[in-house]
Amino acid sequence: MSLQIVSSPLLAQAAKPVKTQPASNPSAQTGTNVWMMTSGGLFLLLIVLGILSTLQANKLKKQVKFEVLKNREYQKKLKYAVETIGKMERNPDLIHSREFNLDYLRMRMAEEVFHFAIVNQIKIRVKDKITMALRPTQANQGEIGIASTGRQVDEIFDVLHKTGEAAQSTRVLFRIQIKILKLPTQPTSVTINQIIDCFETFLSPTHENDTWQPAIQGRIANMRWDQNAKPTPLLVLEQTQEGSNVTFRTNRMANKS
Prior knowledge:
With 257 residues, the protein is of the alpha+beta class.
């Protein structure tokens, strides 16, 4: 009888369910924190990228606006230059002015097509005129058919230009005078190329080689606009008797006359 009284509470206690608390998961909490930090970092990165994109877009808009205004100014200057050139070419008083011709030449030589045409014409005329003048004659040939002494060469030719009017007319833009001493020290073709290089550099519209010094056949040459030649300008290329070790400044067309 006593055994039944004692075992009943024990059985009841054993049958009562035991409540257990769930164990915490550290790895799940760590993953949640990493995901939140990553999301926050991406959000901040998107904000920064948006701000940078806006600033860059505003900068590009300003640059485009500046280029548009710059292009308009260039168009105005080009239109004004074309009108000015047209007036100059149609003005009979200015055509016979040396100062006008030099200003007109400087203005037009800045144009790539015009510059190429004038320089190419000079090359052709130099090859035709100077090659003939440099050929030795029977009077100044040595015993073996080669000129034994120097020979003075002095040639003048015109550089022509067609005006841009409806009825185009050809007129003399300027003249060129070449004064050199033909020496039997190098082939004629080399001397011709040296002369052409002198004119190409002197008539270049850029401001490079401001202290450039021309030389022909190893001797210093001088290039200048003849101040006494009027109304048509005269460009003189004159070879001096100085050696190549002597240098002095030559004023190019791009700077002064």
